[in-house]
């Protein structure tokens, strides 16, 4: 379990509780998302890449075809088990370990990625470790994608229902904005690129229900009873407001830090 007073008012959450849904419904990044990474010359062509908070290995699995070698680490045994299952035969290495405890040799990696997880880390502890294990001029690439509730009515309705069952959830109310990089990274790193852009992601009622269920505010934190009650109400809501197939407006963001 993870508990942080700055996240969900300290309500504990555990991604391992929702690993099945995470594996089925959160591999949703469009091709444009990955092309933005390749356009920066990252995660390809023989580079050695470490993916922090890898979850079910979404980023390594999607990008292994571009010629990098990957290591994924995550605090959750259940998430890593799903990653290994879904990555079979792809040559991706996975370790179950908190990001703060990684211990690779100096200068091991060309790139370190962190997608949907950067704010969970103890940055005062980890930023020096990341600097040490990166090669000279190596990169940290922070990635993020979120629905936009103030611009998309289906996202707004689903988000309101999350808050009904979990008013402590602090993930609500996203607007397009640059990724916040903690001040400690000014020691040893330079922010050399950031980008934010809107995109649409296709869903069915089933896959959108699964995607929302696999968020921190529902599947990773609520009791089984409350999850079931939420899901029953959410499915009924989607029957009323959404066609069988639809798109949800999101925004994506990246921040690229160079080791100096």
UniProtKB/TrEMBL annotation:
Outline the extent of the Methyltransferase type domain: 50-141
- Pfam families given for it? Methyltransf_11
**InterPro entries membership:** Diverse_substrate_MTase, Methyltransf_11, SAM-dependent_MTases_sf
Keywords of this entry: Methyltransferase, Transferase
Q: Which GO terms describe its molecular function?
A: S-adenosylmethionine-dependent methyltransferase activity
List, in alphabetical order, the GO biological process terms annotated in this UniProt record.
Answer: methylation
Q: Which domain of life is it from?
A: Bacteria
Sorted alphabetically, which SUPFAM superfamilies does this protein's record hold? Answer: S-adenosyl-L-methionine-dependent methyltransferases
The family note in this entry says: Belongs to the methyltransferase superfamily.
Q: State the protein's name.
A: Methyltransferase
Species of the source? Bifidobacterium olomucense
């Amino acid at each position: 379990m993870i508990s942080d007073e700055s996240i969900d008012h300290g309500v504990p959450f555990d991604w391992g509780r929702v690993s099945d849904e995470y594996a089925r419904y959160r591999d949703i990044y469009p091709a444009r998302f990955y092309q933005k990474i390749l356009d920066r010359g990252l995660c390809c062509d023989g580079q050695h890449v470490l993916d922090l908070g890898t979850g079910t290995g979404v980023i390594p699995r999607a990008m292994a075809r571009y010629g990098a070698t990957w290591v994924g680490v995550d605090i959750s045994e259940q998430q890593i088990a799903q990653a290994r299952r879904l990555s079979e035969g792809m040559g991706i290495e996975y370790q179950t370990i908190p990001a703060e405890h990684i211990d690779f040799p100096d200068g091991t990696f060309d790139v370190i990625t962190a997608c949907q997880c950067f704010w969970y880390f103890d940055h005062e502890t980890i930023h020096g470790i990341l600097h040490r294990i990166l090669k000279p001029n190596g990169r940290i690439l922070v990635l993020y994608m979120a629905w936009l509730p103030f611009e998309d009515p289906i996202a707004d309705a689903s988000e309101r229902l999350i808050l009904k069952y979990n008013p402590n959830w602090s993930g609500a109310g996203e607007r397009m904005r640059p990724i916040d990089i903690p001040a400690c990274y000014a020691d040893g790193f330079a922010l050399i690129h950031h980008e934010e852009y809107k995109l649409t992601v296709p869903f069915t009622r089933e896959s959108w229900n699964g995607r929302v269920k696999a968020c921190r505010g529902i599947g990773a934190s609520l009791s089984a009873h409350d999850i079931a009650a939420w899901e029953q109400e959410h499915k009924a809501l989607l029957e009323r407001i959404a066609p069988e197939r639809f798109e949800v407006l999101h925004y994506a963001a990246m921040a690229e830090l160079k080791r100096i």
